[in-house]
Amino acid sequence: xxxxxxxxxxxxxxxxxxxxxxxxxxxxxxxxxxxxxxxxxxxxxxxxxxxxxxxxxxxxxxxxxxxxxxxxxxxxxxxxxxxxxxxxxxxxxxxxxxxxxxxxxxxxxxxxxxxxxxxxxxxxxxxxxxxxxxxxxxxxxxxxxxxxxxxxxxxxxxxxxxxxxxxxxxxxxxxxxxxxxxxxxxxxxxxxxxxxxxxxxxxxxxxxxxxxxxxxxxxxxxxxxxxxxxxxxxxxxxxxxxxxxxxxxxxxxxxxxxxxxxxxxxxxxxxxxxxxxxxxxxxxxxxxxxxxxxxxxxxxxxxxxxxxxxxxxxxxxxxxxxxxxxxxxxxxxxxxxxxxxxxxxxxxxxxxxxxxxxxxxxxxxxxxxxxxxxxxxxxxxxxxxxxxxxxxxxxxxxxxxxxxxxxxxxxxxxxxxxxxxxxxxxxxxxxxxxxxxxxxxxxxxxxxxxxxxxxxxxxxxxxxxxxxxxxxxxxxxxxxxxxxxxxxxxxxxxxxxxxxxxxxxxxxxxxxxxxxxxxxxxxxxxxxxxxxxxxxxxxxxxxxxxxxxxxxxxxxxxxxx
Length: 561
Known about the structure:
Rossmann fold
């Protein structure tokens, strides 16, 4: 009895696990079974594998064929196991030596003509392979650049099932080899034609997307050469600069505080006051992602299939869902196993919710868990998937449905009940988790730098905050916080525990917090968040500990005073 073997890797969220495939050819009526908790797409692999196998001009077993994927307790989905299933069958038939399959991971989707198609999630799989000391990976050629981002692994990219046989020193019959090579050539010609059309469509779609979106994109032309480190300057230029926002210097300063401490922000103001422009430029003032964060973000994008469009970049992600988005699109969804949602794609970056009261209350309530824990657990019929979701929330809202209940509210056409109903969608628990809550007043006068200089206000012109200035201030403040928390495992003030904050804050500053608690301006959670804000303000001002001014400003930012 000969049992063919092969190794592959599965993904449950971003968590990878090894899968052993065994193919057994036994006597009995002809049939092909795949066991080991497969989903529908994996069950369909039978037809894809059989057709691709026959493109080698090899005889398909005319008896019973069973392929087992273990461990059977782990759910398996997708078409990424096609190539490994084919390898196990080829080894059971004696075409590929079993010794060649040792310590080698095989991944890839098979087309009916035997061509090998790219899969999603290659980067986290490659990282797992390195962690497990696996020396070799045989993967689709379209995923080769992505796998080579991980050093220390021999990644071999193939385009056809015949390449798999050749790479593993397999032997075909003499009369089968020429026909298999012809089938390979025909299949690759079809793929090249399709890829040419797909690249043109992707370029058009990318141009249209970049013209209508504030998202950071690094589009690529060739999928095989797509995952390259990109220069940080170009994406930042595409985001825009804070100096392009007229006025709102106080709001820019508050956003600088938010970026320095990792604080969540809510901006309330009339239409046209610059809320969306300010939020979309948040990534331009944030600290560049470190290597660990870059890998986490890239792994999420690899799982979503968007890594070829972004590349590896140190610019924080920016996600801005439409207010009609569903809860499943936000937290992640899927029939059997949950796919990453918008909040996971915003990990290590900014989640911007414009017109927040227009979102469904149910959608807004889903933010409570990730705002506290930095991750989201999504349960579906075949298991629970844990995704990272440590984002910085930026909320923008009008003061009322018409947007003009600001100041004396003369232009407002809304009734009092409509205003109350409008803001009641933002529940107390959500608002309590937002550190900075501020008003964004309308800009009443346009003053250019040239006009300031002509009026002799040179000092005033220097106060216009640019992204470069703000980013430098944010970097310096973050370095101070990281040095303070290096033994505690926190990277910014927003992560500090309330116990630590209360222990090291001066008694006079605590008394100021107590007054706000007595006046019911702050909850206990709000008091801790005000303390975190005060420490960030102290870091920006060069203070070793928050003084009364820092604490007063923190309470002001917290309570919209």
